[in-house]
């Protein structure tokens, strides 16, 4: 266990835990469904978006010795946790680490013999260090293979907590019916004039006669028959809507018609009215659209114009025309509306205040076209259109029986076919038919109508929806009778839809059972109704759709049916599970479900007591809240949020295996419910919720639950003092600070978010101040966090804290300026006022002074966004200081600092030239120049940077401390360099005798963009304001908008990513197979054949080959990285690492080489950066950046930063000018180990066993080589120390493959081979051709300053050392422009002198450099960098003073 509480990840047992996601694992069709059948874990990362690794076995990746072929898709969970859960004594269990993208597992049996053959071949080589048995163990290799992961591929590395572009689309309220209406009144105008046929209508004999299922020719008398027909028609409409007020108007006169129409509109106000017109007893509508009624005495037919009817009814209105030639009315309707609108415009011009009548939003349903007559089939009703609209089941049964060519067990009579049951009882035959009919017509409309038209006609008004559902049936039946019903708005044809066949099948099933059902009703027999399997089949069809690659362009046909199925308890669970799978497809699916009308159902189901529904309801609500959190008021109804509060409790019972994942969803729902909703915060302020959050924060296996428990408390506390006091009473803030070293960065960031909102209790008592100071003290530990996401949230926390204690931080800032002035060597007093100080130091040894120091350090953070935000905080405090009563004091201090800075700059400018400055430095290596000798701490340099900005602030200009660069591609010099990194002494950046920086400028190449940070649109003139706003909650919400139940694209066979993986796997295997036989030949070759010659343009100092891509990364002596395709000799990209002047790139290594690689770059000032798309020019992005070494020790002999990357362990070993070796975990982005370096000398080189990753070796500047074992306690981790080297260790390297040779080389030319079990070197080689033993000294008497023996013979200096990863060869570069190649038996193979543009040059005392050797008065450029390709037999060589790279083959 390390100091910070993190585990080293080496001991204990490994657990594969799947954090918070869910997946449906298949289905059954027997109707027996449980939530546990569907909700099991498959995918695990709370922040997905990680790439998938390649498919070689672990030994393929690192040794190239064995060949194993794997399926590109793993069979089980594809993202287990990377770190084991460990125990230290009987201590508490630590939270699990973050889920990682992992490689595939499972070798195929078809090549088992090949594996055994390779294993036998490798066993004969006898690995060094006693690793034969370990590496031959199948259990060992299987364990390594199962825990091989990819790193820096999580979602946080794509955008660093910044919302995606799609986030601006949410919340979207398009699905809500803002203009929901209801039909409040209806006029049923029935013009039959029984016994008198209209003059222009000729009836057939026999003819249709039923009106409202009543025979008007019955012997009841004319008036009684009309009353019965009117009553029946009203009952039929009431079956559609009981809330509408109906009024019958039987054979109305013109006066009555006007009166009831005007009254109808007056009573309805702005709601919709219905006007039903049956004109079977009056003349046909005229060509101009006039319909007919009677005079008072019923002696004349009186026309009613459309214009007049519109004037009386106005809008919104619903018209139903059951009359022949009804199309005449509909086709003239819009013309009259336009006339009304014109009249309104004229009225508005005459009187702007006049009341304007609304004539819009009129819906019409007409029985036929303009010249069509209604059907007269005697087997059908005369008002067939009305029957279809009001009694669809009865007319559909009659029509089915009439059209059925087979024998039917029932006969058609003049009345309805008596189907048992009630319409409202879905378990009865009649109710089930009505249920199926509703589902089918809704589905047909959903599939055919445009979305906006469907919403208007089928979701806005219950009466309109019912009539239009039935209108689809009318269109089908009446078209078969040569009649074409029409509507306004016009609908597409629907009568040929395939679902009508399902309707016919449902009718047939009922018809076939009718005789038994009728007998059962008469108590003649016992018969149980056989229910239709329509809904079960449609759910199966929906499931097939979900399993067939659903896309937004291909919406499901069955979604309205799923909605209807929710009404049934029999199919409800299965429907909800399928619905959850659909919602998991993304926001587009959620919008579709909401627009279809799913929301009222899921709100109502919150009142259901069924425990089996809880998991699926939580899942559905999480997806809905992620898309539209404005449903808070709906969730408030009937206290629906309590449903999720109860489930969130760890003691609640959820019938699902991954209960913690569903509790995390509940925490998300509650947090979103409280977002910007004070009423929701009040409802949620319960001890049950807060205790649940605190207990869930201790959940060790689910980081998503810990994350959202923090965010839930955060949103509960936001601007709500009562909740903060409740948190104080139970110590919630103290429990949050326990998460400072949580292994998941998202959890740590969420903890910062919660504590930020915790600040600000209105009553700032001593108790509150003490609590907040304690929180701030704990937050200081996060300054050195490796995650940019965490540091970003930390800056936001400091912005809130400094805003709250503004005056104290103004004092701290001023005292920091005074301290800086006192530390400055040229800080003279400009006048009396500048010397005024505050009595004593108020901020020293307080959390305020420490916090101010930390925010200054964060303002020069290597991550651009973090630095930009922190600079805004610093600028704000400085701005406040300059507007406070302390302004005069502060300005005088600033003036002194500026004058001192100018003097320092002037003293440097007095040096005649860069070359002479170099000479001055090299002539006195132990004494730095005076201007560089002062204590340039990070803190003091930060003060200088911010102090220089104060002058601009006073002048009213923009703050120069805000690190907002302009477009670096067009103006790369805009990068800020006046930072601690930019002010480091030059000797900090290179070891003794290293290349001096060439004359030139930094930042010549474009800067890569920082992932998630967009500087465009930033207003530099705008003064900063505090507190800063966090986007963490919105960014975290995006997780619930992403699919979780299905594999990512790389795991989907046939996808582009999947095919690319297959191609990469084949290519990687081919490269390994092609190069493995060449190892033996390489050990006996001369290595002098020039393969290629690359002009890099700048001086190369570090080179790295990619294992499989033809990429060669070249870093120059400043900050430029160039990526070459060495096969085509073409430059792929070139970008700046952003190094401050005076620093250099220490090294570059590849990560995740098997799949989509990343580039890890280290700088001599202790900063590590990770780049994605490094070979794609403008697409290169900085994934993350952090300061791995923040306590560099000044020295005239230094190594800067040296590091080694362990892909298998996911660790970065960092060392350099530091007393410790830091171990950074790439998964947790934390420093998980501080191993004492056991010397005062700097670490010059690091290497490690890349397979198991537990052993690493360090070379030192004093010649020591030490071996460490990470499995041991850090204090006792050093297991071996070798003191055989006498000089600076140039390099130490352990092979990935081969026999795992461990080799080291020192500057005097000694190369030694080691075995960690032995106390002495296995072999010593004089690699540079000088003396083999003795002591050496540096001489200032010689112009080159090189190493000399006692006989004053110059010893060639070893400048570089490279070892092939698999072949038994190594190469050294000397200062005599030679590359010497050896095999591991100590045999010299050849000497190669690379081509150069200037191999020889005249040596002068002022130009003499340690980068060259002087021979005969001439200087030969030294070899400054060598690098082997990991698999190919290829060596890259670069010499000093030249920008070329030579590629050498064996």
From TrEMBL:
Residues 180-334 form the Raptor N-terminal CASPase-like domain. WD repeats lie at residues 1282-1324. InterPro entries: ARM-like, ARM-type_fold, Raptor, Raptor_N, WD40/YVTN_repeat-like_dom_sf, WD40_repeat_CS, WD40_repeat_dom_sf, WD40_rpt. GO terms for biological process: cellular response to amino acid stimulus; cellular response to starvation; positive regulation of cell growth; regulation of autophagy; TOR signaling. Belongs to the WD repeat RAPTOR family. PANTHER family: REGULATORY-ASSOCIATED PROTEIN OF MTOR. This is Target of rapamycin complex 1 subunit kog1. It comes from Lithohypha guttulata. The gene is KOG1.
